[in-house]
Amino acid sequence: MRTSRGAWSVAGLVAGVAGLATSYCVAMVMTIRDSPVVAVVEQVIKLVPGGVTEKAIRLLGALDKPLLVLVVLLAIGAAFAWAGRLARRSWWRPLLVYVVLAAVGAAAVLRQRGAGAVDLLPVGVGLGTWVVALTVLVEPLRRAELVDAAATERDAAGDLPALSRHTRRGFVLRAGLLTAVGGALAVFGRSVGQGRRAVEKTRRLLKLDGVTEGQVPVRARVDLDEITPWRTPNDDFYLIHTALVVPAIAPTDWTLRITGMVDRPLEITYAELVQREITESWVTLTCVSNEVGGDLVGNAWWSGVRLADLLAEVGVQEGADAVKQTSDDGWTCGTPLEALTDDRGAMLAVAMNGRPLPVEHGFPVRTVVPGLYGYVSATKWVRELEVTRFEDFEAYWTGKGWAERGPIKLASRVDVPRSGAEVLAGTVRFGGVAWAQTTGVAAVEIALDGGAWEPVEVADPGTDDTWVQWVGELDVEEGEHVVRVRMTDKAGTVQTSVEAAPAPDGASGWHERSFRAVSS
Ligand SMILES: Nc1nc2c(c(=O)[nH]1)N[C@H]1C(S)=C(S)[C@@H](COP(=O)(O)O)O[C@H]1N2
Ligand SMILES: [Mo]
């Protein structure tokens, strides 16, 4: 017998552990609350009768959870080894074991509060690893058995020491390599996860003087139930970043350097920054990638420190026309110097809707500049501002063909009725948003089925740096219809009907929505 039961068990175990390691690593990097194994343990705790859990907790004190994790791990370990032994007889039996284990993991993950489809990714990665790793490991064993069988048939019984040693060496090498890679991934995942969790905790406990909740102006709201909220909650705010793993920066580790064409270069700490005068304002951020009618736009109450003041202090030199912003993750953007020094209120923001910036939105400090697309202004995890000239550098997205300057284009959107909705024929109420940051929205009009433009009611948030809600009524007959919207800014410019794709400097064109009107 060339291959022992033991080798097959070890193959199953090593493959299984490698899969746990990759799934744990993915869970940590994605900062999913915890690994699928822990999700399973939590379900076990929930399913076990309360009395038993309590007794266990009393008996074992704080050890109860790690102990449960250990028990679950031992159980899965046994299943892994068993799957390995099953692999000796067929390829599908171990697969079945892995799929069942993954299904249990997936079910446990989905039962966690607030879980969604992306939370299943670690489970999927783990399952994939199991299958690949097991195949890699049992392949030499299977080959050895074939040779062995052939040898037996030829009645050449006896040892085949060379082959045996060769096979064993190959197997041990593969198993060792998989274990090492799995271990390294788990350690990497752990360090990423721990860093992030520590920063999350600091952030939660952070109290910032001068930062207020921000009251939505009464007149910013129109009277229409289904309309997009004027203030976008932090959890619903769109996210755009190139970083795979978002930087987790403790405020004590953060400084900002202001360099380049300045008389007095400056390095400022987080503590120094938040001691300065805090300014607050409503600003609607927009992504240049937003399609006509798209949702890469959001409105928040930002608190931070005015950039114009900081730049005045460092003394900007003659000839500069740009600020190259660099993020902790290496992302860069180029902002017209003027947009940071004029009176539009560009800021280094430390809070969003009254809370320290969420980590994904740039904690501890990001830039917010009214009127410019995010890709040329809204640097998250900002670490350096270099005063310079546009001709002297190329920023991340401009290097990929996007425009060097990115003023936000006039835009408007129909949100009610939703696309494909059915409404009652007769007087129909329409609603949506429109924006022209820094200039302001003067008027919004809608047109039914290519007919005449009709003015609608536009809310007044009391600032020109945000979107506005609009609402209007039209008489609609039964049948299929298309409603279209356009706006005019306070400079008298009518939003263009010319359709443009987002690249290279933002989408344009009138947004329209199809809907059906029915009689009761
Ligand atoms: N560090 C960093 N900052 C960044 C980006 C990025 O990829 N990395 N993307 C920018 C883009 S394109 C936009 S639209 C805004 C989006 O900000 P949000 O994710 O907070 O909505 O952030 C900007 N700041
Ligand atoms: Mo963007």
UniProtKB/TrEMBL annotation:
The keyword Membrane applies. Residues 510-520 have a biased composition (Basic and acidic residues). Residues 245-397 form the Oxidoreductase molybdopterin-binding domain. It holds the Pfam family Oxidored_molyb. It comes from the Bacteria. Residues 498-520 are annotated as: Disordered. The keyword Transmembrane applies. Coiled coil: none annotated. Keywords: Membrane, Transmembrane, Transmembrane helix. InterPro entries: Ig_E-set, OxRdtase_Mopterin-bd_dom, OxRdtase_Mopterin-bd_sf. The chain crosses the membrane at residues 67-83, 95-114, 120-138, 171-189. This is Molybdopterin-dependent oxidoreductase. It comes from Nocardioides abyssi.
